[in-house]
Amino acid sequence: MYSKWYNRMNKHFLILILIIFLPWDSKSEIKKSVSESGDQQFNLLILGGGYSASGNEVSLESNVRYLHRQKNEIGLSNFKTRTLFSDGVDSTRDIKYKDPSFSVPEPNLILAEIFGSTRGIYNQYRNHRLKADGMSSIKEFDDWLKDVNASSKRTSNLIYFTGHGGKGEKKTPQNTTAYLWNNYKFRVSDFTKKLDTLPSDQTFILVMVQCYSGGFANFIFREGDSKKGLHPQVRAGFFATVHDRVAAGCTPDIREENYQEYSTHFWEALCGESRIGKKIQKPDFNGDGSTSLTEAHAYVVIHSNTIDIPIKTSDVFLRRFSSFDPPKEEDALNKIIKNAKDLLSGTDSNSSKREDSPNDWIFRKDPISKILLSASPESKAIIQTLAQRLSIQDEEVFEKAENKIKEIKKRREELAKAKREKEEEKKKLKNKIKTRLLKEWPELGNIQHPAVDLLKQPEGSSKIITLANQDNEWSDYKKRRDESAQIENKRFKLEKTQVLAMRLTHEIENVVLRVALPKINSPDIIERYTLIEELEKTILRQSKD
Questions:
Q1: For residue range 280-298, what is the model confidence (pLDDT) as tens digits?
Q2: Are 379 and 337 members of one domain?
């Protein structure tokens, strides 16, 4: 009913309304900090390691070593770098590793399986071999922030976290955790408050690879809470997975060719070389001759063969401010602002293809050819490649991907049932062996009893093996254990295929939400999204030296 009235609106009045609602000065300052790189200082903080020696896998050390080795090729040579890793300069053994040539005597395995746990029985420990500037602690993090803040220049800051993460609490699931040394829980809310001490004209980019890392994408909001509004500082980031899923990668395995975590692919996309020295073609989805951070992220989404669902800050932004469905009603003020935007850009508000026309809205279940018309080069590459990997070749990509997710979920549940049956058989055999060994050696009731050490000597060891394997029960136990592991491997492979479908639906949603964003939001929100996207598309330049 308002359309005729809007079209008769005085053009200058509409422009005045738009100016009133846009804080141009503050936005110009923010945009300046994103787009300019002249008189600017660059800072890189490498933060990570485990929460203790028992959780400080050698792969985490390798992640840091790889980044340092490729700093120039990635484009980080101009960044002032500080590395805070595990216990810092302490000489204690803090790295856990697993050498495939290391073996555990059979009697030890029997006693561990039957009376204790085999967890960590193959692990060995040594001191880390990094030139760390300090330990991974809040104090060191605060000191780094003070140094950044002391600079008189504008700064562009990149934080790379490679470590462990924890879930958010039930009431605040997005407020996830990054673990620092000595089991310190660094929550999203606390992390965000720390960054609040820096001027708003500084920019921040995160690359985080821990479990539940997606919660940290909320650092674009005040106190990391989307309900409290956007933070004035422009921030962007890339995360191994969403806030409610574990991530791949942390392993004590010393074989680097087995490492498949997020940053392995992210950094190789930027430098053109894998961590084991294999040359790869750097992604350039938009054909501009360079590889942006967004393109590196897309490369991970496409090529990573893990259980991760990688996300970036703009994904979280869209899910906070956009919608999959058009609004039923719009208030007059929003329409005035939209029409004013049309006038400022020279668009005819009487056009049949208006920005808020229902014909312009796209939906997740639309033909994929229609959705791809609105996709960025990176999104287009992700959608087309993942659909191909999943053998989805028709127009109903979103629906087919959803069906595949459901189908695989059902198959995984069937395998879980089969695994439980094997575990039950294992349990029965374990109880039989345990009863027999306790009858012979009651001291085994306390695995730390001095007599147990004597049993591990050659004469006792032979007797343990013989008694445990009476009626082939120890052999049967190991067989059930291996069968259970094989079933779990099948479940794991299925999950990785399921995750490809989940990545595909996630990216289709990104396109749909991105198209919808300007139709239902004020210019401030649209402008902030643009700034975040610009920061995500940062291109790190290699040194000319």
A1: 999 999 999 999 999 999 9
A2: no
